[in-house]
Structure formats: C-alpha cells, structure tokens
Amino acid sequence: MKRILLVEDDKEIVDVLQYILEKEYVVDIAFNKQQALMLINKNHDLTILDITLPDGNSLEFSHLINNPIIYLTAKDDEETILQGLTLGEEYIIKPFKKNELLLRIEKVLKRTTTNMFQYKDILIDSNAMKVYVDNKEISFTLLDYKIVELLFIHAGKTISRDSLATLIYNNTSNFVEDNTINVYIKRVRDKLNRDYIKTIKRVGYLVEKE
Questions:
Q1: pLDDT tens digit string along 112-123?
Q2: Residues 6+ apart with CB under 8 A from 165
Q3: pLDDT tens, 122-142?
Q4: Contact 61, 53 (CB under 8 A)
C-alpha cells in the first residue's frame, strides 16, 4: 500500500482528506513545519503539501523532500504557482474537487513510482525480485522472495496466516499444513538475520511501520 505524507494545518481539511485517502493509501499527518521536518523522507511515496503553515512556508523546505510533491493550497498568485510547479509535480488550488485530487495522485504515483522499496537496512527490488540487506544480496527462492515482499511492502499491516497459506499454495500446488507457514517464516527470518517480522499470535505476521 502506498504511503502519503499530508502536511496541512486545517483540521477539517485533514479529516476530509484522511477519509478520502485512507481507503487506498497509508496516510501520515503533519500539522505544521516542525512536524513535517520530522516526518519527511520516511519512505513516503508522495507528499501533499500546503504552502502556508502556522510556523513557516513549506516552499522553504520542499527541496529536502525526496519524493513527489503535490501542492494543495489556497495561494493562487502566479509567482507562487510557478515556484510550486518548479519544485513539485502538481499544484492544486483550494477548494479542491475530490475526484480530481484522487486522479492527480494516481497519475503522479504512476509517473514517479520506482520498483525499489526500502525498509531500514533492507532493500527490495521488485523488478529483479531481489532482496538486499546492508547492500548485500540475500539468496532467496522465488517463494521466499514473495513472502518477504508481501510482508515488507505492507509494513504496518498484519498479514494473516490464511493469506500466506494461499501464497504458498499458489506457488507450490502443495497442501499447506499449519506448520508449513512456520517453516517458511523461520527460513526467511534466518536469511534476513533481522527481527523485523513479528508474530501476531493466532492471527499472522507483522512488519511494523518505521
């Protein structure tokens, strides 16, 4: 699931945007410049950024953001618009239309999304189906790789044992016993040599959000 940082000081707008966006995306919220500076570049796929914040102007720190930016702001003067379009991918003037915003988000993500996913010291290359730990490639079978990808790309979401059983069955056509899942998870953990995969008893497995 893609992850969006929303920087917006208006609580009512934040509530509306959360309701709209959280159906499709994981959303982190910053209400001011200070909070935004603490959250930027935490593996977000996109930043939605108001320009005028209570403690500063977001154009002053936009260059620090290493993911695509959509400016969502009431500022409609030509100079600011041009500056925003230079620094970001899109510039939307409030009040905004829900469907237009969702379409622009989708288009920006399609244009800019890479197939590389970073979680702490683990890098997943979805194109090559490879996993690196501390920049060293770890040898995985195709199924092991798919388990790693499922767990880490959905960090913050518990992956049920049923989902893992289905994944294993679809790739092996073998009946999946309860212990089979444990064996695969143990093998993946051993190869990663990290404690990032948490067991949620009787439910499944979770890689916690960073």
A1: 666 778 899 999
A2: 176, 180, 181
A3: 999 887 789 999 989 999 999
A4: no
